[in-house]
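The instructor's notes for this session suggest beginning with a concrete chain rather than abstract definitions. Hand out the sequence below and ask the class to guess, before any prediction is shown, which regions might be ordered.
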Amino acid sequence: MLSSFTYFGAFLGYLVISFFADNLGRRTSLLIGWGILVIGSFIVAASVNIYMASAGLFLCGFGSDVCINIAFFFFG
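After discussion, reveal the predicted structure:
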């Protein structure tokens, strides 16, 4: 159950950050996505219960999967 938050965050991240990539540019979208990923990583590292860890994993999935795909387009 806990690992599904990462995939749900990745799904919502594709919807939200792709909107930012179209309107703000790829570089700004990468910075936003990596910022969300860093915040999620800190939340997972500092989590004291399962709910905090699930919120951090959601944010990690939200930021990381989209940024990986944008980086592939950015280098291509």
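Then share the key points. The longest helix spans residues 50-75. DSSP finds three helices and no strands in the chain.
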